Structure formats: C-alpha cells, structure tokens
Amino acid sequence: MLKGILPVLPTPFAATGVPDEAAMARIVDFAVASGADGVVFPGFASEVDELSAAERGALLSLVVKRVAGRVPVVAGASAPSAEAVIGHAREALGHGVSTLMIQAPKSVGIDAAAVAAFYKTIADAVPEIRIVLQNAPAPRGSDLKPDVIVEIVSGNPAIAYVKEETLPAGPAITSILANRASHLTGVIGGGGARYILDEYARGACGAMPAVEIADIHVALDRAYRSGDVDRARDLYRRTLPLLVIQANFRMAFTKYVLTRRGILDNHRTRAKGPALDRHDLREIDAWLDSVSDLLTVAPLQRLAGAAA
Question: Which residues contact residue 175 at a Cβ distance below 8 angstroms, ignoring those fewer than 6 apart?
C-alpha cells in the first residue's frame, strides 16, 4: 500500500542545460534519507513537459536503480494521448515499476464516460499496472468532480489510488472515500502539502509534495499517525510560509532550497515561470533559517553561486 510521504522528485540540470544525473542520484538519496515512504518520477514538479522521451526514460531508469528497492517508485505516465501513455507504461514496466500516476489529458474532457474510456484503454493494453488516477486542478488539469471520479474508479479495477488535488481537495476526498469501490486502496493528497492536515483528517493515506523539505513532512506524517496531532500542527504551522512561497515559484523554489541544503549546486529550470529575485531569496533564506532545527538530512549550506 502506498502511504505516507511520497515526494515528487525534480529534474536537476547541469550548466550545459542537460539533466544532471549525478545530482539526480543525490536527490534520490536525500529523499530516502529523509524517510520518504516512496518517490514519484516524473511528475509536474519534475518539469516533465520539458523533458524529451529519451531524457524521461533515462532519468526514470536512474531513479529506479538508485532507489534499489528501498522504497516504492511511482512512475508518472501522463501524456497527451492514450497511445503515448501506454508507451510510457510499457517503458516503466521495463524498469520494474508497475504503479503509474496518470492524468487524463484535458482533450478527453470531463464527461465520465469519455474519461472512463481513456483509462480503460490503458488498463486493457497494459494489464500489469496499478493506476494512480491524478485529478489536478485547472488550468493544468480537468477538475473532475468527485461523482465523476467515483464512477470512473468503480468501472476500472486497475485504478488503485486517486491523487486528489483539486481545490478545495478536502470535500472531494471525503466524498470519494465515502463512495469508493472496494478495489480503491486509498486517496493521496496533492497541493504541495499545503492542506495536508485536512487531507489526513479526511482519510487520505498519504501526500505527494515536492521534495525539498521531505524530512519535515515525514516528521509531520509520523507525528500525526502516532496520535500527536499537536506536534503535527506545529510542524505544519512552521512550514506553511515556505509552502506559500513554493506555490508561486514551484520548481525554482524547490531547486533553490535544495542548493541551500547542499543537495544541488544550482537551481536552473527549463519550465517557464516567475524568476526568484534577491528579495525572494532573502525571504526564503529567512524562513529556512527559522526551521533549520527541523532539517535533519544534510546541513544547511550557502553554496557559492547558488543564487545565480
């Protein structure tokens, strides 16, 4: 069963602009050392839309080999067509990964029958897989309603999980779990862990945030599961300012924090988005310093050129 903290790994890039495989290995090691219950690659936070098919496959292979069975790997297989998803699914199976996170492309629409047919085509073509149905918010996703999700899942035994990250996700999680088919193992939260306590209170089995503060998210998860909700709330309160900034800067934020933590030596991105300026970096630094006692994996570092 997938449960707990399952961070989505970013794609690091070298100065030449190509994926940095040595840095990718360090990110995997950091996630595992943080106590993550699994890792996800590639996903939106991996800049998956900016990766070529060859890069995507090579990096997934690297992630699987580096994980070396220590935790489960969930492979992102979303693509603009069912045929392309099937291709990614077969490649993932070739690397030994059978749990795949798939978001139906917006071109399929929001009609339950059409979306169900999309997932059925994939499940029929690659029956060995377990699907994590990703329901992302607009504009990236289709904002499928809970009753539509329930109908789709009920007709497809290959769908073992739903990653629910529409806003607000809480009521959707409650509805999906209240009406779920027996084969649905669980619902996983998204939204960068900005709503993790509400998701957990409603029965989510885990969360898929970005990786940069995975050690704190793991501590929050363990505190909540042990019944120490006050401790979980304190950790949530202390991390929330960082997650608010992350919501605006996404991958650039993740990579900058990882440079501060000594995991990466730059925060280059391919994906378009707002650039971090010196005011943003100063604010991130201040909030990171305020939680330095919670960062248990690798000491915080200011690397030369990290803000370049």
Answer: 146, 147, 150
